[in-house]
Design brief:
The chain is mostly helical. It has helices spanning 20-30, 45-48, 55-71, 89-98, 103-107, 110-118, 125-140, 153-170, 215-223, 240-253, 257-263, 269-294, 298-327, and strands at 7-12, 38-43, 79-83, 145-147, 178-180. The chain has two domains: 6-180 and 298-327, Rossmann fold (3-Layer(aba) Sandwich), CATH 3.40.50.620; 205-292, Tyrosyl-Transfer RNA Synthetase (Orthogonal Bundle), CATH 1.10.240. It has 13 helices and five strands. A three-stranded parallel β-sheet has the order 1-2-3. It has a two-stranded parallel sheet with strand order 4-5. The chain is globular. It binds tryptophanyl-5'AMP (TYM). Residues 9-13, 21-22, 25-26, 44, 47, 134, 137-138, 146, 148-149, 151-152, 186-188, 197-198 line the site of tryptophanyl-5'AMP (TYM).
């Protein structure tokens, strides 16, 4: 709750290029929540450096991501869109929460285990405490809900545990957030290895649909998607490839699994893959057009970065000051 209105926080890393999983699992749902909630959507550039980045590229990607937020339909007048690194309260609260989070809890995080195994040469402390910074992000804004894909659920559970622990010592300081995860689209799988989730760090470009891929590329990637050999368009656990495509087609067109199965009864995988590619391409086309316009408008994007950064700082500092007082830091002398 903030100013008597329910509030919400979510964010994305500015590494790699946004893919269809990021859009269907998160961004597409964000756009529907602006009237009911006070919304904060962050470009989490501080999380991004837990893996080594090229500085100029990271800066460029952060700006591209913030621009994509707007292009996908987030109105910057109604949603606070900003860079994490512009609001020092994230780092400050993260330090405090580090002192209320157990090593054992962080050791259990599957994303840490996964990332550590992929970056054996750089298993840094930031990678380990990554979920604490995430908890700070969420708790600074007293978020009631956190709209994310399925892979972030464990991190939100940790956030709830840490917030509950803090509250039980100091009283009602933090709102305990709920994950907001849609039934469909919350776990989009790789087009090449459909038992693995679609991921920004996948080296195989054919495994992911990127938000800025052109229509031909999108259709080509769907045509090449790995599926089984029985040629029946049916959603089933033992058919991960085709089930993933049915889900993607469903979220892109608003059709249920049953409706999709019915629509393609008696048709082959070839037709279905092309239809899915076309549906996804036409869903993404307006976003791409708007993005290409917006990215040229430097002054407009700059003004959003500045104004929204200040707005986010205002709310974040309110929570931070309360927390600092609770833990016993000396008062500031004015
Ligand atoms: P990130 O940048 O990996 O992903 C951004 C969002 O996309 C969702 N997502 C998916 N959804 C469906 N299918 C997929 N294959 C898929 N891959 C990713 C993610 O669940 C996420 O919602 N740690 C976070 C960023 C973060 C954050 C936060 C999120 C930092 N602080 C506070 C919420 C609240 C991350 O790395 O997301």
């Amino acid at each position: 709750m903030l100013d008597g209105k329910k509030s919400l926080f979510s964010g994305m890393q500015s590494t790699g290029t946004l893919h269809l999983g990021n859009y269907l699992g998160a961004l597409k749902n964000w756009v529907t929540l602006e009237d009911e909630y006070q919304c904060f959507y962050c470009v989490v550039d501080m999380h991004s450096i837990t893996v080594r980045q090229e500085p100029a590229e990271l800066r460029r990607k952060a700006r591209a991501l913030l621009t994509l937020y707007i292009a996908a339909g987030l109105d910057p007048e109604k949603n606070c869109l900003y860079y994490q690194s512009h609001v020092p309260a994230h780092a400050e609260l993260s330090w405090i929460l580090n002192c209320y989070t157990y090593m054992g809890e962080l050791n259990r995080m599957t994303q840490f285990k996964d990332k550590a195994s992929k970056n054996e040469e750089n298993i840094n402390a930031g990678l380990f405490t990554y979920p604490v910074l995430m908890a700070a992000d969420i708790l600074l804004f007293q978020a009631d809900i956190v709209p994310v894909g399925d892979d972030q659920k464990q991190h939100i559970e940790l956030t709830r545990d840490v917030a509950g622990r803090f509250n039980s010592i100091y009283g009602d300081v933090f709102t305990i957030p709920e994950p907001y995860i849609k039934k469909t689209g919350a776990r989009i799988m790789s087009l090449q290895e459909p038992t693995k989730k679609m991921s920004k760090s996948d080296d195989n470009a054919n495994a992911s649909i990127y938000l800025l891929d052109d229509t031909d590329t999108i259709i080509r990637k769907f045509k090449r998607a790995v599926t089984d050999s029985d040629n029946e368009i049916r959603h089933s656990k033992d058919k991960p490839g085709i089930s993933n495509l049915i889900e993607i087609y469903g979220v892109a067109t608003g059709k249920s699994i049953e409706e999709t199965e019915k629509e393609f009864e008696g048709k082959g995988y070839g037709d279905f893959k092309i239809a899915t590619g076309e549906a996804v391409a036409s869903m993404l086309k307006p976003i791409q057009d708007r993005y290409n316009e917006l990215i040229k408008d430097k002054a407009y994007i700059d003004s959003i970065i500045k104004n929204n950064g200040e707005k986010a700082s205002y709310y974040a500092n309110k929570t931070l000051r309360k927390v600092q007082k609770k833990v016993g830091f000396p008062e500031r002398i004015r």
